[in-house]
Amino acid sequence: MAQELLVALCAAMIAVAVLVVGDRIRPKSWRQNSDESSSHLALDLAKTIFTAVLAFVFVACWNQNQNAYNHTITESKGLVDTHLAIHALPAPDRERIHDKVIAYTDQVLTEEWPLMERERRLSPDTEKTLNSLRAAVIAVQSEDPTVVEARTRALTGIDRVTQARHDRAIDVVRNLPQFLYIALCFGAVLVLLNPVLTGMLVTRRSVAMTALLGVIIGSALLAIHDLERPFSGVLGVPTDAFRYAQSQYEPSSDSPITTAE
Known about the structure:
- It holds the Pfam family Bestrophin-like.
- Keywords: Membrane, Transmembrane, Transmembrane helix.
- The chain has one domain (1-18, 43-248).
- The chain is 77% helix and 0% strand.
- It is built from 8 helices and no strands.
- It has helices at 2-25, 36-85, 91-119, 124-138, 145-173, 178-197, 204-228, 240-249.
- The longest helix is centred in the N-terminal third of the chain and has 50 residues, at 36-85.
């Protein structure tokens, strides 16, 4: 942060130095009678930079939000793959692992998701449930090729869940660089001061247009704030991927999970 401020201060000093030195060496015929053009130049540049930074930050936050959503889809697919793989396991192991898959998914939705919204962190208890699920699959021992293959596929699914969960842990704490927020706020202030600095006449029309400008800027900043927190806010990542996974756990009439052996 200190480095960004130092660079900005140095750039301001260089710009002033160029203006003062240039004024001394340029022909007098180039000089203008007023400084109105300087204000227009600075304000136009501020508006351009604010628009560019706003667009860049919005796209970056949107991509971050979509990546977080994709990670939940990958995690839920890993859970479904694990659930499908255990159908070939012996009944005691199958039912025990089946219960742990359901328990992990339920904990993500009921315990971990609210925690991500409020405190932007994952639940240690949910991680313990995932580790318990992995241990239960590893504990399956058999020389039956069908069981060995099912165990391997189940572990592959759990590996996908673990990796996606790790990505989700990064998504929930990721923030925009602070200097981008400062640039956005500074640009917003300059844009809002534009009517004052340009000497705009206060009328009903100018007041209405200025109010509309404020609404647009405020809405844009609020959207960026929501997108930066992918698991909370109006634009937060939905839980539909895990809801879909839950629907796949429901036993059907021919499901081997409910068949006693």
